[in-house]
Structure formats: C-alpha cells, structure tokens
Amino acid sequence: MTVLGKRNVAEEMAPGVFRIEVPTPFHVGSVNLYVLIKAEEVTLVDVGPLTEEAWQTLNEGLASIGIGLEQISQIVLTHHHVDHVGQLERVRRASGARTLAHPQAAPYVQMDEDFMVYHDQFFKELYQKSGVPEEKLIIIAKFQKLMKTFSAPSQIDGLLKHEQVLPLFPEWQVLYTPGHSQSHLSLYRAKDRVLIGGDHIIKHISSNAFIEPPRDRSRNRPLTLVQYRTALQMCADMEIDQVFSGHGERVTHHRELILSRLQKNWERTDTLRRLLASGEKTAYELTALLFPTLYEKELPLTISETIGHIDLLMILHQVEVEERDDVLYYHL
Length: 332
Description:
By secondary structure, this protein is an alpha/beta fold. It contains ten helices and 14 strands. It has helices at residues 52-64, 82-85, 88-95, 106-110, 113-129, 138-150, 224-236, 254-276, 283-290, 299-315; strands at 11-14, 17-22, 31-38, 41-45, 74-76, 98-101, 158-159, 165-166, 169-176, 185-189, 194-198, 242-245, 320-324, 327-331. The strands form three sheets. Strands 1-2-3-4-5-6-7 form a seven-stranded mixed β-sheet, covered by helices on one side. The N and C termini lie far apart (56 Å). 43% of the residues are buried. Mean pLDDT is 95; it is low at 1-6.
C-alpha cells in the first residue's frame, strides 16, 4: 500500500510487511526500517539514526499506514550499527516497546563505558600491528564521536538466537547471520519465502565484513570475512524469493547475487596474493594498494576488508606472517 505523491510513506513489501525509508547523514545513504503487522501486534525492525529528519520520517511513515508509535509492541534490531539503532531510546520512550536483539549488540546499544575502553584499545593494537601510521589512529576516537552524535544509550530487553521463533510473530524465524557485524540477525518467513536481511544481503553493494573485538576478551578476534561467507552460503541454500535489505531495493534471485559476491571475494584474494608476490607488506600497505582512492577516507572499512582476505589466505596456508617491532609483515 503506497500512497503516491507523498515523500515519507511506508511501502507494502509483502502481506503485513511495510518498509519505511529513513534518511541518514552517512555515505551509505538512507536506511530501510520494516514494520511487521499481525492483528493488534506491531514490530518495528530497526529504528534509524538519532536525527530529527529520521524521527520525522519514521513518524510520517507509520502514520501513512495508520499506526502510532504507542502501538509498537516490540523493536527488533538486525545489528548494532548506528544507522540502524541510533534513535532506539527515543522510540522506546515514545512507544514503551521492548527491544530484542542478539546478545553481542548489547554493549554497543548500552554504550557500556568499560566495553568502549576495551573496544578502543583493541583497535589501537590491531591498527598498530597492521602498520597504520600513528597520526591516523585518530580514526578510533572518531568512532566514539559518531556514536555519541547519532545515538543515545539504550537497552535490550530480550535476546534472540539462531532459529528461534520471533516472539509475538510465530511465522517469523530468527537467523544468525554474522559477518557484517557480530550481532547481525535476519528474519525469515517460510510461507512466502521472504527474508528481512538487514545489511547481510544488499543488492547494489557488497556488505563489508567489519573487524570487531571478540566478545570473550581471552579469545582471538573473529574471522569476520569467513563468518560472512558462511552465512551467505547458508542463505544461498535456503528457498528465498525476496530479500528486504537494510539499504536499497529488494533482492530477487538471491543465489545468483550471493554466488557473484563469493566469486568476487576470491578475485580480491587473488589480487592480494599477486601484490604480495613483489615482497612482504603490512596490512596497511596492502590496503593502500587494494583501495588507492578510498583507503584514506574509509580506513576502518577498507582495512577490515584487507585483513579479512589475509585471513582467508592464512587459512589456506598461502601466506605467512612475521612480527617485527609489534608490526605484522605478510609474505607468500
């Protein structure tokens, strides 16, 4: 049900599923929120960033399908990134709704001070070992500034796990789809083969497998690109007619898209291997070669991508690593 001629209007994507496209101040562009309706129950999937424009768009989108914030029973977070969760606390206060998410979203949503100190230390060590110049470590502080500018501390009331039924909406199954983030969840409805995929599967861009600190501080960091590929392959094996993504248009023919993304992964891995043929390099040096026009503007994104491909080569025993003066050097 789409009303033509109006800007902030919810679009009916499937029976009982509406999309509200909310603007963000980020390079990724607008973010898609989804409203699930069944009888008297309403679930909002993601909430958008903490901006007045996002707040107005959300309210106008809900109003276009005859819903007020106070009718929302629960909020489901696909993952903890600020463009998806920033105005959670404002929505919670206006609606009284419970929030459901993966356990690993909690410290980000709560903006837990102890975790944030650990988070920054993790990235300082990661970037130093990757050979990132000292003057560029300012990007770590930028993350905290981003969080504080476009989100507010909130909380999660209930935890979701892989293959459980979504509370209040038993037609929907929760899927754990990590890689883009450690907290990433998708929702699947088998009867019409619909997946609400967050940032797991996006039509126009390949989702970045962001490096994140491990939940258990005694363990090594997650191999995020390996996780992402595994979660994509899981979805490729499923019967899915439509994917409603966190950004951009719906996805049809999901298997073809996934297979294309997996193939491009290997092509980039091959490129990295060719770059190493000329001699040893740090992850930062490889990032500059892989993404010459982008790496300075988007260093967290690009270095995550590079390290992910190094992880793949390490698993295949095609690359070796030596540590000198607390910096890792990779060679064939």
